[in-house]
Specification:
CATH superfamily: Tetratricopeptide repeat domain
CATH topology: Serine Threonine Protein Phosphatase 5, Tetratricopeptide repeat
Low-confidence stretches: none
Largest sheet: none
Helix content: over 70%
Number of domains: 1
Number of strands: 0
Distance between the termini: 23 Å
């Protein structure tokens, strides 16, 4: 099922429906399948389309952490917190703040929820 979903989402990339939501959805599906590297690429595209998309920043941080890139995860969450503050998205701001504090407290952390 996920392979079909990923294939369907990839077919839409570069077309008229391409954008932050499509890339976020594709990144999320790839991360669910365990492909953190490809998820990172798609989530970076999502935030390029919409730098204020706090949910994409949050998931990008998780993908980076899952992909063994804790410094990139911290950078993504910092950018995501700034985006969330700008949008007034208090919940995303709070969640990413918690993830960032955990990471800074224990840089060996390998996963976030």
């Amino acid at each position: 099922m996920s392979d079909t979903l990923i294939a369907n989402l990839r077919r839409q990339c570069g077309g008229p429906r391409d954008g932050a939501l499509l890339r976020f959805s594709l990144g999320s599906a790839l991360l669910t399948e365990g492909d953190a590297g490809a998820a990172i690429d798609e989530l970076r595209r999502a935030v390029t389309f919409d730098p204020s998309y706090s949910a994409a920043w949050k998931l990008l941080g998780k993908a980076c952490l899952d992909g063994g890139q804790p410094q990139a995860a911290a950078e993504a969450w910092r950018s995501g917190i700034a985006a969330a503050v700008q949008r007034g998205d208090k919940q995303a701001e709070k969640e990413m703040g918690v993830f960032l504090r955990r990471l800074e407290k224990d840089p060996g952390t390998s996963r976030q929820s």
